[in-house]
Amino acid sequence: MKKILFIVGSMRKQSFNRQLSEIVKEKLNGKAEIKELAYSDLPYMNQDIEFPTPEAVARVRAEVKEADGIWIFTPEYNYSYPGVLKNLLDWLSRPYKANDFASGTAVLEKKVTISGIGGKFATAGVRENLKELLGFMKMNVMEETNGFTVNADAWASNVLALPEEDKAKLYDQADKFIKFLE
């Protein structure tokens, strides 16, 4: 059974993207082992503290390395990625040994897919920006991504109601990602 690590680009407890990831988690139940990455304890990326590797960074890198694939669920902040997600990706892109990229990174050739839910642009900007960034980081990015628009009443209730046609797109992405991991 493949191991998929979910990365949610929002720290908010009732994050719509966390709720979106829960829909996928239910779909993949019995088809893959799912774990959500906890990374709120990461320090800001700073080369002054990069070595020796901070404990939180080492833990996150190990979890990423163990996974067969990564699924990023992210909101869009100003048509791009949230700062907490970018900070995580910056740490993951750094080499294991100082100034030695030949030593590898936790994400080198790691397979990844992207979904997001947000406002009227359905996270188009962040998904395109992430594809570019993840490709630059030498990750193996699945071409198809999906973006969705939050239902209007969710902004007040904090409860995501994803229409069946959107769930179908998400379920299709899940099936394709499982095949992508093989």
Describe what you observe in this structure.
This protein is α/β, with parallel strands linked by helices and 182 residues long. Helix content is 39%, strand content 17%. The chain has 6 helices and 6 strands, in the order E-H-E-H-E-H-E-H-E-E-H-H. The chain has helices at 16-28, 55-66, 83-93, 124-136, 154-157, 164-181; strands at 2-8, 32-36, 69-73, 111-118, 140-141, 146-149. Strands 1, 2, 3, 4, 5 and 6 form a 6-stranded parallel sheet that branches. Helix 3 (83-93) links the parallel strand 3 (69-73) and strand 4 (111-118). Helix 1 (16-28) crosses helix 6. It is globular. The termini are close together. The model has no long low-confidence stretch (mean pLDDT 96).
Query: Separation of termini?
Result: 10 Å
Total strands: the figure is 6
- Output mean pLDDT: 96
Sketch the topology as an H/E string, one letter per element.
EHEHEHEHEEHH
Low-confidence stretches: none
- Return the structural class: alpha/beta
Q: Total helix count? A: 6
**Overall 3D shape:** globular
Which strand-content bin applies to the residues?
15-25%
Brief account:
The protein is an alpha/beta fold.
How would you describe this structure in keywords?
alpha/beta; globular; 182 residues; 6-stranded parallel β-sheet
List the helices and strands and how they pair.
Layout: E1 2-8, H1 16-28, E2 32-36, H2 55-66, E3 69-73, H3 83-93, E4 111-118, H4 124-136, E5 140-141, E6 146-149, H5 154-157, H6 164-181
Parallel strand pairs: 1-2, 1-3, 3-4, 4-5, 4-6
Helix pairs in contact: 1-6
